[in-house]
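Q: Predict the bound structure with pyridoxal-5'-phosphate.
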Amino acid sequence: MTVANRMNNLGTETAFEVLAKARALEAQGRNIVHLEIGEPDFDTPGHIVDAAIKALRDGYTHYGPSAGLPELRQSIANNVSNTRGIEMSPDRVVVTPGAKPIMFYTILALAQEGDEVLYPNPSFPIYESMIRFCGAKPVPVRLLEDEGYHLDLEDFASKISDKTKLVILNSPQNPAGCVTSRAETEAIGRLLQERDDVFVLSDEIYKDIIYHGEHFSISQIPHMEDRTIILDGFSKSYAMTGWRLGYGTFPLQLVDHIAKLSTNSVSCAASFSQRAAIQALEGSQQPVKDMVSEFRARRDLIVQGLREIPGISCPEPEGAFYVFPSIKETGISSRDFQEGALNEAGVASLAGTAFGEYGDGYIRLSYANSQENIKEALERLADFVEKRSN
Ligand code: PLP
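A: Predicted complex:
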Protein backbone atom coordinates (compact mmCIF):
# COMPACT_ATOMS: atom_id res chain seq x y z
CA MET A 1 0.00 0.00 0.00
CA THR A 2 1.27 3.48 -0.80
CA VAL A 3 0.25 6.20 1.61
CA ALA A 4 0.45 9.92 0.90
CA ASN A 5 3.95 11.40 1.27
CA ARG A 6 2.80 13.71 4.04
CA MET A 7 2.38 10.70 6.33
CA ASN A 8 6.18 10.40 6.48
CA ASN A 9 6.27 13.70 8.31
CA LEU A 10 3.89 12.67 11.06
CA GLY A 11 5.45 11.90 14.45
CA THR A 12 3.73 10.32 17.42
CA GLU A 13 3.27 10.44 21.17
CA THR A 14 5.43 7.63 22.57
CA ALA A 15 3.40 7.59 25.80
CA PHE A 16 0.59 5.78 24.00
CA GLU A 17 3.04 3.21 22.56
CA VAL A 18 4.65 2.50 25.93
CA LEU A 19 1.20 2.27 27.53
CA ALA A 20 0.23 -0.40 24.96
CA LYS A 21 3.44 -2.37 25.67
CA ALA A 22 2.87 -2.11 29.42
CA ARG A 23 -0.71 -3.34 29.05
CA ALA A 24 0.52 -6.30 26.97
CA LEU A 25 2.94 -7.23 29.77
CA GLU A 26 0.12 -6.91 32.31
CA ALA A 27 -1.99 -9.26 30.19
CA GLN A 28 0.83 -11.80 30.64
CA GLY A 29 0.54 -11.44 34.41
CA ARG A 30 3.38 -8.92 35.01
CA ASN A 31 2.96 -6.12 37.54
CA ILE A 32 3.76 -2.71 36.04
CA VAL A 33 3.88 0.69 37.75
CA HIS A 34 2.63 3.24 35.25
CA LEU A 35 4.67 6.44 35.19
CA GLU A 36 4.43 6.97 31.45
CA ILE A 37 1.07 8.51 30.67
CA GLY A 38 0.25 12.17 31.30
CA GLU A 39 -3.14 12.00 32.91
CA PRO A 40 -4.33 12.67 36.44
CA ASP A 41 -5.18 9.38 38.17
CA PHE A 42 -8.02 11.11 40.10
CA ASP A 43 -11.66 10.70 39.16
CA THR A 44 -13.49 13.65 37.63
CA PRO A 45 -15.12 15.59 40.53
CA GLY A 46 -18.67 14.39 41.25
CA HIS A 47 -20.46 17.69 40.58
CA ILE A 48 -19.05 17.69 37.02
CA VAL A 49 -20.16 14.09 36.44
CA ASP A 50 -23.64 14.98 37.76
CA ALA A 51 -23.84 17.91 35.33
CA ALA A 52 -23.01 15.58 32.42
CA ILE A 53 -25.68 13.08 33.48
CA LYS A 54 -28.22 15.88 33.73
CA ALA A 55 -27.17 17.17 30.31
CA LEU A 56 -27.65 13.72 28.78
CA ARG A 57 -31.14 13.50 30.32
CA ASP A 58 -31.90 17.03 29.13
CA GLY A 59 -31.18 15.99 25.55
CA TYR A 60 -27.68 17.37 24.95
CA THR A 61 -27.07 14.40 22.69
CA HIS A 62 -27.00 16.21 19.36
CA TYR A 63 -24.53 18.12 17.20
CA GLY A 64 -23.74 21.62 18.37
CA PRO A 65 -22.08 24.63 16.72
CA SER A 66 -18.51 23.94 15.46
CA ALA A 67 -16.98 26.65 17.65
CA GLY A 68 -18.73 25.32 20.77
CA LEU A 69 -21.97 25.92 22.70
CA PRO A 70 -22.46 29.69 23.20
CA GLU A 71 -22.98 29.28 26.98
CA LEU A 72 -19.66 27.41 27.33
CA ARG A 73 -17.81 29.93 25.15
CA GLN A 74 -19.14 32.65 27.44
CA SER A 75 -18.08 30.75 30.56
CA ILE A 76 -14.58 30.16 29.12
CA ALA A 77 -14.27 33.83 28.14
CA ASN A 78 -15.16 34.84 31.72
CA ASN A 79 -12.65 32.35 33.12
CA VAL A 80 -9.84 33.43 30.78
CA SER A 81 -10.55 37.10 31.62
CA ASN A 82 -10.42 36.37 35.36
CA THR A 83 -7.39 34.09 35.36
CA ARG A 84 -5.24 36.21 33.00
CA GLY A 85 -6.57 39.65 33.78
CA ILE A 86 -7.32 40.35 30.12
CA GLU A 87 -10.57 41.09 28.33
CA MET A 88 -11.66 37.98 26.50
CA SER A 89 -14.88 37.84 24.48
CA PRO A 90 -16.81 34.61 23.75
CA ASP A 91 -16.55 35.11 19.99
CA ARG A 92 -12.79 34.56 20.26
CA VAL A 93 -13.19 31.13 21.90
CA VAL A 94 -13.23 27.84 19.98
CA VAL A 95 -14.06 24.61 21.85
CA THR A 96 -12.56 21.33 20.60
CA PRO A 97 -12.55 17.62 21.56
CA GLY A 98 -9.46 17.84 23.81
CA ALA A 99 -6.92 20.64 23.54
CA LYS A 100 -4.75 18.80 21.01
CA PRO A 101 -6.80 19.96 17.98
CA ILE A 102 -6.00 23.56 18.97
CA MET A 103 -2.33 22.79 18.19
CA PHE A 104 -3.20 21.10 14.93
CA TYR A 105 -5.63 23.79 13.76
CA THR A 106 -3.39 26.69 14.75
CA ILE A 107 -0.35 25.30 12.97
CA LEU A 108 -2.44 24.27 9.93
CA ALA A 109 -4.01 27.72 9.74
CA LEU A 110 -0.79 29.71 10.13
CA ALA A 111 2.32 27.81 9.09
CA GLN A 112 3.26 26.50 5.65
CA GLU A 113 6.27 25.63 3.54
CA GLY A 114 8.95 28.29 3.91
CA ASP A 115 7.78 29.29 7.40
CA GLU A 116 9.69 28.56 10.58
CA VAL A 117 8.09 27.67 13.90
CA LEU A 118 10.08 28.05 17.13
CA TYR A 119 9.25 25.56 19.86
CA PRO A 120 10.88 24.40 23.09
CA ASN A 121 12.89 21.19 22.90
CA PRO A 122 12.35 18.88 24.74
CA SER A 123 8.60 19.47 24.68
CA PHE A 124 5.23 17.87 23.95
CA PRO A 125 6.05 15.78 20.83
CA ILE A 126 2.93 16.79 18.93
CA TYR A 127 4.29 20.32 18.34
CA GLU A 128 7.19 19.10 16.20
CA SER A 129 5.06 16.44 14.55
CA MET A 130 2.42 18.94 13.50
CA ILE A 131 4.93 21.56 12.32
CA ARG A 132 6.54 18.96 10.03
CA PHE A 133 3.18 17.61 8.89
CA CYS A 134 2.06 21.09 7.88
CA GLY A 135 5.24 21.52 5.79
CA ALA A 136 6.84 24.23 7.95
CA LYS A 137 10.31 24.02 9.49
CA PRO A 138 10.58 23.19 13.20
CA VAL A 139 13.22 25.32 14.93
CA PRO A 140 14.02 23.88 18.37
CA VAL A 141 14.91 26.17 21.28
CA ARG A 142 16.91 24.59 24.10
CA LEU A 143 15.97 24.32 27.77
CA LEU A 144 18.72 24.86 30.36
CA GLU A 145 18.98 21.93 32.76
CA ASP A 146 21.20 23.83 35.20
CA GLU A 147 18.51 26.50 35.48
CA GLY A 148 15.57 24.25 36.18
CA TYR A 149 14.93 23.66 32.48
CA HIS A 150 13.96 27.25 31.78
CA LEU A 151 14.01 28.30 28.12
CA ASP A 152 17.43 29.43 26.84
CA LEU A 153 16.51 33.00 25.91
CA GLU A 154 19.80 33.60 24.07
CA ASP A 155 19.11 30.56 21.92
CA PHE A 156 15.56 31.84 21.43
CA ALA A 157 16.75 35.31 20.34
CA SER A 158 19.29 33.86 17.93
CA LYS A 159 16.69 31.69 16.23
CA ILE A 160 14.11 34.36 15.39
CA SER A 161 14.41 35.02 11.67
CA ASP A 162 12.54 36.69 8.81
CA LYS A 163 10.85 33.35 8.24
CA THR A 164 9.55 32.96 11.80
CA LYS A 165 5.77 32.73 11.64
CA LEU A 166 4.80 31.12 14.92
CA VAL A 167 6.33 30.63 18.36
CA ILE A 168 5.10 27.87 20.67
CA LEU A 169 5.44 28.40 24.41
CA ASN A 170 4.38 26.01 27.16
CA SER A 171 4.20 26.85 30.85
CA PRO A 172 3.99 24.94 33.15
CA GLN A 173 6.04 22.77 30.86
CA ASN A 174 5.75 19.17 29.76
CA PRO A 175 8.10 17.24 30.20
CA ALA A 176 10.37 19.30 32.47
CA GLY A 177 7.89 20.99 34.82
CA CYS A 178 9.35 24.49 34.46
CA VAL A 179 7.10 27.51 35.12
CA THR A 180 8.14 30.47 32.97
CA SER A 181 8.34 33.58 35.15
CA ARG A 182 6.76 36.92 34.39
CA ALA A 183 10.24 38.42 33.78
CA GLU A 184 11.12 35.67 31.29
CA THR A 185 7.79 36.01 29.51
CA GLU A 186 8.29 39.78 29.29
CA ALA A 187 11.77 39.21 27.83
CA ILE A 188 10.19 36.98 25.15
CA GLY A 189 7.57 39.68 24.55
CA ARG A 190 10.34 42.27 24.02
CA LEU A 191 12.08 40.00 21.51
CA LEU A 192 8.82 39.77 19.54
CA GLN A 193 7.78 43.41 20.00
CA GLU A 194 8.72 44.58 16.50
CA ARG A 195 7.49 41.40 14.83
CA ASP A 196 3.74 41.86 14.62
CA ASP A 197 3.66 39.21 11.87
CA VAL A 198 4.65 36.52 14.40
CA PHE A 199 1.93 34.69 16.35
CA VAL A 200 2.37 32.85 19.64
CA LEU A 201 0.66 29.60 20.56
CA SER A 202 0.76 29.63 24.35
CA ASP A 203 0.03 26.15 25.70
CA GLU A 204 -1.31 26.80 29.20
CA ILE A 205 -2.99 23.44 29.81
CA TYR A 206 -1.14 22.95 33.13
CA LYS A 207 -1.77 26.48 34.44
CA ASP A 208 -3.68 25.24 37.52
CA ILE A 209 -0.94 22.81 38.57
CA ILE A 210 1.79 25.04 39.99
CA TYR A 211 3.92 24.59 43.14
CA HIS A 212 6.32 27.50 42.77
CA GLY A 213 5.83 30.87 41.15
CA GLU A 214 2.62 31.90 39.43
CA HIS A 215 1.08 31.57 36.03
CA PHE A 216 1.77 34.48 33.73
CA SER A 217 0.46 34.30 30.17
CA ILE A 218 2.19 36.12 27.32
CA SER A 219 -1.31 37.34 26.37
CA GLN A 220 -1.07 39.61 29.43
CA ILE A 221 1.59 41.71 27.70
CA PRO A 222 -0.43 44.42 25.91
CA HIS A 223 1.34 44.25 22.54
CA MET A 224 1.08 40.42 22.53
CA GLU A 225 -2.61 40.04 23.35
CA ASP A 226 -3.80 40.31 19.76
CA ARG A 227 -1.39 37.74 18.44
CA THR A 228 -1.51 35.13 21.16
CA ILE A 229 -3.52 31.95 20.88
CA ILE A 230 -4.09 30.54 24.37
CA LEU A 231 -4.47 26.76 24.45
CA ASP A 232 -6.17 25.40 27.55
CA GLY A 233 -8.70 22.74 28.48
CA PHE A 234 -10.29 20.47 31.01
CA SER A 235 -8.11 17.32 30.79
CA LYS A 236 -5.51 18.16 33.42
CA SER A 237 -7.14 20.71 35.76
CA TYR A 238 -10.33 18.70 36.26
CA ALA A 239 -9.08 15.15 35.57
CA MET A 240 -11.22 15.00 32.42
CA THR A 241 -8.83 13.45 29.87
CA GLY A 242 -11.43 10.96 28.61
CA TRP A 243 -14.11 13.61 28.16
CA ARG A 244 -12.07 15.13 25.33
CA LEU A 245 -12.62 18.80 25.89
CA GLY A 246 -10.28 21.70 25.31
CA TYR A 247 -10.32 25.20 23.86
CA GLY A 248 -8.34 27.95 22.29
CA THR A 249 -8.72 31.72 22.31
CA PHE A 250 -7.84 33.34 19.00
CA PRO A 251 -7.40 36.72 17.37
CA LEU A 252 -10.86 37.46 15.95
CA GLN A 253 -9.72 37.18 12.30
CA LEU A 254 -8.64 33.57 12.88
CA VAL A 255 -11.81 32.28 14.54
CA ASP A 256 -13.75 31.47 11.35
CA HIS A 257 -10.78 29.61 9.89
CA ILE A 258 -10.37 27.54 13.05
CA ALA A 259 -14.11 26.81 13.26
CA LYS A 260 -13.99 25.72 9.60
CA LEU A 261 -11.17 23.29 10.40
CA SER A 262 -13.37 21.94 13.16
CA THR A 263 -16.35 21.58 10.79
CA ASN A 264 -14.11 19.73 8.34
CA SER A 265 -12.66 17.32 10.87
CA VAL A 266 -14.79 16.68 13.97
CA SER A 267 -17.94 18.85 13.49
CA CYS A 268 -18.00 19.79 17.18
CA ALA A 269 -17.08 18.62 20.68
CA ALA A 270 -19.62 16.40 22.52
CA SER A 271 -22.55 18.55 23.65
CA PHE A 272 -23.02 16.95 27.09
CA SER A 273 -19.27 17.22 27.82
CA GLN A 274 -19.55 20.92 27.06
CA ARG A 275 -22.47 21.38 29.45
CA ALA A 276 -20.50 19.61 32.19
CA ALA A 277 -17.50 21.83 31.47
CA ILE A 278 -19.54 24.89 32.51
CA GLN A 279 -19.95 23.26 35.91
CA ALA A 280 -16.18 22.55 36.00
CA LEU A 281 -15.39 26.25 35.49
CA GLU A 282 -18.18 27.74 37.59
CA GLY A 283 -18.52 25.14 40.38
CA SER A 284 -16.27 24.55 43.39
CA GLN A 285 -12.52 24.67 42.67
CA GLN A 286 -11.73 22.80 45.90
CA PRO A 287 -11.13 19.46 44.09
CA VAL A 288 -8.49 21.18 41.94
CA LYS A 289 -6.74 22.52 45.04
CA ASP A 290 -6.84 19.09 46.70
CA MET A 291 -5.41 17.46 43.61
CA VAL A 292 -2.56 19.97 43.38
CA SER A 293 -1.70 19.48 47.04
CA GLU A 294 -1.51 15.69 46.54
CA PHE A 295 0.63 16.21 43.42
CA ARG A 296 2.98 18.39 45.48
CA ALA A 297 3.48 15.61 48.06
CA ARG A 298 4.16 13.13 45.27
CA ARG A 299 6.58 15.50 43.59
CA ASP A 300 8.58 15.81 46.81
CA LEU A 301 8.57 12.04 47.22
CA ILE A 302 9.72 11.24 43.70
CA VAL A 303 12.36 13.98 43.53
CA GLN A 304 13.89 12.88 46.82
CA GLY A 305 13.81 9.19 45.84
CA LEU A 306 15.39 9.80 42.43
CA ARG A 307 18.15 11.93 43.93
CA GLU A 308 19.09 8.94 46.13
CA ILE A 309 19.75 6.73 43.09
CA PRO A 310 23.43 6.92 42.09
CA GLY A 311 23.87 8.48 38.63
CA ILE A 312 20.47 10.23 38.58
CA SER A 313 20.10 13.95 39.15
CA CYS A 314 16.72 15.63 39.31
CA PRO A 315 15.86 19.35 39.38
CA GLU A 316 12.68 20.13 41.32
CA PRO A 317 9.75 20.76 38.96
CA GLU A 318 7.73 23.94 39.55
CA GLY A 319 4.52 22.76 37.94
CA ALA A 320 2.62 20.03 35.98
CA PHE A 321 3.07 16.43 37.19
CA TYR A 322 6.28 15.26 35.59
CA VAL A 323 9.92 14.91 36.58
CA PHE A 324 12.65 14.95 33.97
CA PRO A 325 15.75 13.55 35.65
CA SER A 326 19.14 13.32 33.96
CA ILE A 327 20.35 9.71 33.70
CA LYS A 328 23.58 10.60 31.90
CA GLU A 329 25.80 9.49 34.79
CA THR A 330 24.22 6.01 34.90
CA GLY A 331 25.72 5.26 31.47
CA ILE A 332 22.32 3.95 30.29
CA SER A 333 20.90 5.58 27.16
CA SER A 334 17.40 7.13 27.33
CA ARG A 335 15.89 4.56 25.01
CA ASP A 336 17.57 1.64 26.79
CA PHE A 337 16.32 3.01 30.11
CA GLN A 338 12.75 3.19 28.81
CA GLU A 339 12.88 -0.41 27.50
CA GLY A 340 14.90 -1.87 30.39
CA ALA A 341 12.90 -0.22 33.17
CA LEU A 342 9.71 -1.59 31.62
CA ASN A 343 10.84 -5.11 30.69
CA GLU A 344 13.25 -5.81 33.53
CA ALA A 345 11.91 -3.69 36.41
CA GLY A 346 8.20 -3.29 35.60
CA VAL A 347 8.27 0.52 35.57
CA ALA A 348 6.78 2.30 32.55
CA SER A 349 8.67 5.53 31.80
CA LEU A 350 9.47 7.55 28.70
CA ALA A 351 12.85 8.25 27.09
CA GLY A 352 13.67 11.96 27.05
CA THR A 353 14.17 11.63 23.30
CA ALA A 354 10.41 11.06 22.97
CA PHE A 355 10.24 14.84 23.56
CA GLY A 356 12.85 15.87 21.01
CA GLU A 357 16.54 15.58 20.19
CA TYR A 358 17.64 17.65 23.20
CA GLY A 359 15.93 15.12 25.49
CA ASP A 360 18.83 12.69 25.08
CA GLY A 361 20.24 11.65 28.47
CA TYR A 362 16.94 12.13 30.33
CA ILE A 363 13.77 10.21 31.12
CA ARG A 364 10.31 11.50 31.94
CA LEU A 365 8.29 10.10 34.79
CA SER A 366 4.71 11.13 35.42
CA TYR A 367 3.84 11.19 39.11
CA ALA A 368 0.13 10.92 38.46
CA ASN A 369 0.12 7.72 40.48
CA SER A 370 -0.36 6.93 44.18
CA GLN A 371 2.43 7.56 46.71
CA GLU A 372 2.50 3.83 47.39
CA ASN A 373 3.08 3.02 43.72
CA ILE A 374 5.67 5.78 43.40
CA LYS A 375 7.61 4.29 46.35
CA GLU A 376 7.46 0.87 44.70
CA ALA A 377 8.65 2.33 41.38
CA LEU A 378 11.57 4.10 43.10
CA GLU A 379 12.72 0.82 44.67
CA ARG A 380 12.47 -0.97 41.37
CA LEU A 381 14.36 1.77 39.53
CA ALA A 382 17.12 1.82 42.17
CA ASP A 383 17.56 -1.97 41.71
CA PHE A 384 17.49 -1.64 37.93
CA VAL A 385 20.19 1.06 37.87
CA GLU A 386 22.32 -0.88 40.35
CA LYS A 387 22.11 -4.09 38.31
CA ARG A 388 23.03 -2.23 35.13
CA SER A 389 26.07 -0.62 36.75
CA ASN A 390 27.50 -3.99 37.85
N1 PLP B 1 -0.51 20.29 25.83
C1 PLP B 1 0.36 19.60 26.59
C2 PLP B 1 1.64 20.24 26.96
C3 PLP B 1 0.04 18.31 27.02
O1 PLP B 1 0.92 17.66 27.78
C4 PLP B 1 -1.18 17.73 26.60
C5 PLP B 1 -1.54 16.35 26.98
O2 PLP B 1 -0.76 15.57 27.46
C6 PLP B 1 -2.04 18.48 25.80
C7 PLP B 1 -1.69 19.76 25.45
C8 PLP B 1 -3.33 17.90 25.24
O3 PLP B 1 -4.33 17.76 26.14
P1 PLP B 1 -5.74 17.12 25.73
O4 PLP B 1 -5.79 15.78 26.38
O5 PLP B 1 -6.77 18.05 26.29
O6 PLP B 1 -5.83 17.01 24.25
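A: The chain has a mean pLDDT of 96.
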